Amino acid sequence: EYVWWSNEDLTDFDGVVIPGGFSYGDYLRAGAMASITPVIDGIKALVKEEKPVLGICRGMQFINVFFGGTLIQDLPCAENHKPGNPDRYHDVFVPEGTRLYGLYGMMTEVNTRHHQGVGIIGDDLKVSAMWSADAGVVMEAVEHKSLPVIGVQWHPERMMLFGNEQQKEDGEKLMAYWLNL
């Protein structure tokens, strides 16, 4: 079930997951702006109250744009990240000093289902996971430097359902961490 909220409703929430469904840049048209305005207003209210926000896939991209960052519309390495059946997985490097490092250490394996990515990182955000290959560096996670805001490009909920034992455990780690913020 989907729940749409307004600013007034957010004071009742302990936190919010933003799963995606957001258009940006070249694809954003006047009609689409009205549909994302409640999300923008909602994120403003959550940030003001310092409530936890978890962005998944496009939700991570939305967080980056909300904080003033940009997106790459089509990654040069998009073929390596597009959805597959079953999900495709790859390793990501997790920098020390990030919240995700506390969960995974220096490296973890995540699923991948995207063709867009972070361009310029938003204000007060830092990279908390990245994929690096011959095709370049792709930011796979961001987190706010002081607020309980995390965005991941992967789908921990899919890892919990469809991954191998380690992938399921890693998906659960992130979700449990977010629920306890």
Produce a short descriptive summary.
The protein is of the alpha/beta class and 181 residues long. Helices cover 33% and strands 25% of the residues. The chain is built from six helices and nine strands, in the order H-E-H-E-H-E-E-H-E-E-E-E-E-H-H.
Describe the structure.
With 181 residues, the chain is of the alpha/beta class. The chain contains six helices and nine strands, in the order αβαβαββαβββββαα. It has helices at 7-10, 30-48, 58-66, 99-104, 156-162, 165-179, and strands spanning 16-18, 53-56, 71-72, 88-93, 107-112, 117-118, 125-133, 136-144, 149-152. The strands form three sheets. Strands 1-2-9-8-7 form a five-stranded mixed sheet. It has a two-stranded antiparallel ribbon with strand order 3-6. A hairpin with a 4-residue loop joins strand 8 (136-144) and strand 9 (149-152). Helix 5 (156-162) packs across helix 6. The protein is globular and about 35 Å long. The two termini are 23 Å apart. Residues 22-33 have low confidence and may be disordered.
